[in-house]
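Submission checklist for the structure archive. All mandatory fields must be present; incomplete records are returned to the submitter.

[x] Identifier: EamA family transporter
[x] Organism: Bradyrhizobium forestalis
[x] Residue count: 299
[x] Sequence attached
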Amino acid sequence: MGEIFGVFAAVLSSALGGTSIGATRYLVGSIDPLAIGAFRFGIGFVLLLPLTLLRGDRWPKRGDRVAAIGLGTLFFALFPILFNAALIFTTAARGALALSTLPLLSLVIGAALGAEVLTWRKSIGVVIATSGVAVALLSDLASAPSGAWRGDLLMMAAALCMALYGIWSKPLIRRSSPIAFTTMSMAAGAACLILLSHVCGSFAPVAGFGMPQWLGTLYLGAFGAALTFYLWAFALERTTPTRVAISVTVNPISASLVGAWLLNEPLRWNLAAGIIAVFAGIWIATTTGRRIEAAGASG
């Protein structure tokens, strides 16, 4: 049952991540993407810190703190920098597809490091879910600017950061707590982004913010950072990195739905087909462990 909750939390986290892409696209015309990341994770840290203190959660042990800070820098600082840089060279659709290589990377790296078992059913589920993303984005993949491959490679590098974070953070989260670990890691990433934003003068446009921009920024901090990454850590504590990572295929689906609602972007038949394939792939990949465990218990 705990693993089911973990998979559900991962899917909800990725769905919220997709809505955050819509909010980011709304804000990117008003403020530098670097500053958006600084606000997002800075606000997320401010919201998570009192919750962690009130709950009395276990912070990472002294021996784990350097690793937590390093992983926070990898995931909450380097990842958004690579993500934003990728979208300079490639389209959002191609970027979303490149990011959806995350479950494949998690599967291969996790198996190589002995973090989880590589199975045919899990592999097939990853391929089906990733194919579902390609189908959902089919109408947008053909329109690519010259040199889009550079953006695709940067986005795959961002996915690699997420994969390594998911694999390496799992034992650290278990030794502390999801909220406390996420809070410490997010603090490290937010500090890096705030410093870079200050040096680059990225906060200058904030003086012209109106209520819509502030609401978008608060949404990113509360839901796109605090809740999204708490759920991600909660999921990593309860299931394997690949089963968490495969949920990222929900991200571009929810981003498309938000884009249709908030930005009046068209919805096409391929989105519905992609949604079905994504959830079919997630179901196939996430039911493996329970069947094997049940067989083992019967034996």
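[x] Structure attached
Curator remark: The CA atoms of residues 65 and 138 lie 43 Å apart. The longest helix spans residues 62-89.
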